[in-house]
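Appendix B: complex inputs.
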Amino acid sequence: MIISVASGKGGTGKTLVATSLALSLKDSYQVQLLDCDVEEPNDHILIKPFITRSEAVSIPVPAVDKGKCTHCGKCAEVCAYHAIAVMGEYVLTFPELCHGCGACSYLCPEKAITEVPNKIGIIETGQADGIIFGHGKLSIGQPMAPPVIRKVKELIDKNNLVIIDTSPGTSCPVVEAIKGSDFCLLVTEPTPFGLNDLILAVETVRQLRVPFGIVLNRAGVGDNKTEEYCRKENIPILMIIPMDAKIASCYSQGIPLVEGIPEYRISFIRLYEKIGDFINERSRSLKR
Amino acid sequence: MKEVVVLSGKGGTGKTSIVGSLAALVQKKVLADCDVDAADLHLLLNPSAKQENEFRSGQVAVIDKDTCVQCGLCQEICRFDAIHDYVVDPISCEGCGFCSHICPVGAISMNECKAGDWFISDTKYGPLVHARLGIAQENSGKLVALVRQKAKEIAENDDLDYIISDGPPGIGCPVISSLSGAGLALIVTEPTLSGIHDMERVLDVCKHFGVPAMVCINKYNINEANTRKIEDHCYAQGIKVAVKIPFDNVVTEAMVRGIPVVEYSDGVVAREMKKLWNIICDALTEKVKK
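Resulting structure:
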């Protein structure tokens, strides 16, 4: 089972939910926690894993053999990202624009282009108190998160209970992270910004055809329009976490919610049971 | 004309609430919402759209079933695992076009996508350029660049002094696109360990692209020990901490009413916002003098 945790709006509690869910289930299941917010990974701050392996993530970028190149311009013509340009006798490459598709090297009639790795980030793996942990870190100044996310997701072992934390928003890094999940938890807060971005996130997971439910965090702030929306759209609210200064204080110090306030452990176990029920119910109704 | 972009690394630290307040406080400016995949600034500024345009960008491969001979070459060479059973998954396709170039029977064409919409709107605080990236679309960086370009044109045509941009969270493509060439980056952080970690990374990005930065600590009193850590880090890096804004529910109350917090309450949050703008102005003029 793969459960991803997303939100639309940032700062609604994805990391809090992903880490506490992992910690609450680790005694009953082999949990694998993968932080796919590779721009700003935070799960390690709460989970404090012992990192045992670190590996560079690279994408293959073109290197041109000047001796073989005839400046025909084919590479520049086929590159959809303007990552290679031919100016007279010179061929310029722009590695930060390259998506590593391989078209230029394959299509070069002189076979003058080879591919060399360009490091854009790292992935790190380790253990945290029985939880198998992995995350990616995009290098400073690098624009493209999806290749790093794909690399983190290669760590998925489907025999495990896999929990994937994602970045905020609804664009390609979020889609890349959620894709292939059995269920997506959308963490939101009952404010106008929270609701606006939740609606965008709902559209995204619907497009990906991933079943989903809501965790309503900081309940009590703002208004009740988020709950109205969920009722109207028939979206299940699977867990409600109230606005509580103690929760905020734990989070600020990097203490997971279920360690700061252990009573929450049972709530997260229930959350997982509800996800299981929801998926079973859905597969039964699909069969019918 | 000077451009200030508000960033944070971590999401939900208060970027949009701050930009909304600056919108109400600052004269002669254009506003730009560069968080194109989860834009919220319009919820505070109540814009009426003057101009609505399609954003077309990127391509997606389409296989013509009747021409396809099912040789499988496209599936073999696609590095994005986007083709299965001779059908392209538009969500995985990155639009590189490699498959269309190598298909031996010319069965693959590249279709341009509608990747979103962008708007120029009037608000009671001045013009706003904003956008909406299509669901599950790529190219957010290009849409951000377009929003900034339009804001700049408005500032030039209307002889405005400032562009104030609400940036996206993170450090990747849309952040780089919001940041490069701006006059100043205001980094909004909060005194949580995650907030500090993410602020450090986005400050590194500012440094990488040579954009001067200053920091605003929001909800500083939720953990004063961490606030001191932020101040120490900034001091060591030679970065100014402009203001410290206390946690106050008036920020959420103003959001629920759909107005900037400085128009809802004239308490301590509003005072700090005013002080923040004065400090930003000083920094921008100082830079020009240099």
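The CA atoms of residues 125 and 243 of chain B lie 23 Å apart.
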